[in-house]
Design brief:
single chain, alpha+beta, nine-stranded antiparallel sheet, two-stranded parallel sheet, 6 helices, 11 strands
Length: 230
């Protein structure tokens, strides 16, 4: 089943091994290093911070960073397909064939001021039902496709135009962990729960990333470590 979020951006799920099987052998040891977030062997690397301090809601910061980064990479990418990968452990994804209302990862609660009277049970039940309906509407079923298996992680992949990398932007805390074009000329790595995004590519691509005032990027080596929440 193709996600409506993918259909909306002209993308579709794909087989993980055939699209990304080349990645595992080029990764450094598992951990927070740039050389594990992006494959080794690219001429240059950079780190782009996620601008939490610029997002007063602290919800859209990963989207803001990736949108700005993709804007810089657009001229280097052209019309070729771009591959993206998401970790399926986020609560908004659920196993193929499960009921999104009961699959693990969903939960709703009702809260009211401590100095206020308890709402009527009918009001509580109605609020809970509405909350669950909203969450169910935004959940994504894992595809009936082979995931890409990398050290200690697996990812479901999809391909489409460059901007399809943001197909699930409605789940702003959960950006794709892997993004690269068909020709593999550049690579974005955003490990789960990261506060920084790694970029690898040829010198002209990385220099463009470093020059862009919206990104506040810094030069990096494969041995540098990303700021990742434990």
């Amino acid at each position: 089943m193709v996600s409506p979020y993918l259909v909306a951006v002209g993308a579709e799920w794909e087989d993980g091994l055939s699209a990304g099987g080349w990645i595992a052998d080029r990764l450094g040891p598992f951990g927070p290093s740039v050389g594990h977030a992006v494959p080794l062997g690219y001429p240059d690397n950079a780190i782009v911070p996620i601008p939490w301090e610029e997002d007063h809601d602290e919800v859209l910061a990963p989207v803001i960073a990736l949108d700005a980064l993709l804007e810089v990479l657009d001229p280097f990418t052209g019309d070729q397909p771009v591959h993206s990968g998401i970790w399926p452990g986020f609560g908004w994804m659920y196993e193929t064939g499960d009921d999104p209302r009961t699959a693990p990862g969903i939960g709703a609660g009702v809260y009211w001021p401590l100095d206020a009277p308890r709402p009527a049970q009918e009001e509580i039940d109605r609020a809970l039902a509405e909350a669950r309906d909203e969450m169910v509407a935004e959940r994504v079923q894992c595809p009936d496709a082979e995931p890409l298996i990398l050290p200690n992680r697996e990812y479901y992949l999809w391909s489409g135009p460059l901007r399809s990398a943001m197909a699930f932007r409605h789940q702003a805390y959960s950006p794709p962990s892997l993004i690269w074009p068909e020709d593999r000329s550049w690579f974005i790595g955003a490990p789960i729960y990261t506060n920084e995004i790694a970029v690898a590519g040829p010198t002209d691509v990385v220099e463009a990333v470093l020059r862009d005032p919206h990104l506040n990027a810094r030069s990096a080596t494969p041995d540098d470590e990303l700021d990742i929440d434990d």
